[in-house]
Design brief:
11 strands; six-stranded mixed sheet; alpha/beta; Rossmann fold
Length: 244
């Protein structure tokens, strides 16, 4: 059963149809990638699914029964959904450890700073920071991290939420090979645990390695879908995506 579906989803910006009556479904427990040239609507789709921007038409269906024509960004966690951003978003003036502890509390950001965290919170934060190789940086401000380390911290925050559905917007961009391998391995581990991943990515080798299913967008419309090997070999996909 699809964990998230869109039905004739529509979004325009000053006459540009960023997402044009798009109907797609993301199956539970699978890694589904959304690919396409720049401006094809990939990140707009993720922003619509997570309430970052309002829907202009159509609907979003979660778990086959909950239907939205609009959803607010702070509500998505109630449905087991979390995400990363193409432009990493962290609490810059907070230490690495606190950036993780914030997502482990139900309180607001400022209240969480004064909360006495339980052993569970601290153990979970240590677990995810060790998993991404940032435990040694736990007392440093997020502002001082390198670009790759910032992306790894955002992945750690995702792991801390233990969400069932995870949308990753270009998680591998700008990573050194050793960091890239960490994130690839985490994606595979999450799938084994039954998590649903929606991946926006340009690296076709990683798309082939990780994806169970892919959607190809072009100018906000669905161009192709299916297994990576067959879809990425199609001439219309190559022409649209690679410009060949």
């Amino acid at each position: 059963m699809p964990i998230i579906e869109t039905k004739h989803l529509y979004k325009h910006f000053d006459g540009v149809r960023a997402v044009d009556h798009l109907s797609v479904a993301f199956e539970k427990g699978q890694i589904t990638s959304v690919v396409g040239p720049n401006g094809s609507g990939k990140s707009t789709l993720v922003n619509l699914l997570t309430g970052m921007i309002p829907v202009d038409g159509g609907e979003i269906v979660v778990a086959g029964s909950v239907r939205f024509t609009k959803i607010k960004s702070h509500e998505v966690k109630d449905y087991g959904i979390t995400r990363t951003f193409q432009d990493v978003r962290l609490f810059e003036q907070m230490p690495v450890l606190d950036n993780v502890l914030v997502v482990l509390t139900e309180r607001g950001v400022f209240a969480s700073l004064f909360e006495k965290h339980s052993p569970y919170h601290l153990e979970k934060a240590e677990e995810v920071l060790r998993r991404v190789g940032l435990w040694g940086k736990r007392h440093e401000l997020a502002l001082g991290l390198s670009y790759g380390q910032r992306k790894l911290l955002e992945i750690a925050r995702v792991l801390a939420t233990d969400a069932d559905t995870i949308l990753l917007d270009e998680p591998f961009a700008g990573l050194f090979p050793e960091m890239l391998k960490v994130v690839v391995d985490i994606c595979k581990e999450l799938k084994v645990k039954g998590k649903t991943l929606i991946l926006i990515e340009h690296n076709m080798d990683l798309i082939r390695e990780l994806s169970d299913h892919i959607y190809v967008l072009d100018a906000g419309k669905l161009l192709a879908e299916g297994k990576p090997q067959s879809v990425l070999a199609r001439r219309d996909v190559i022409e649209a995506y690679l410009g060949e």
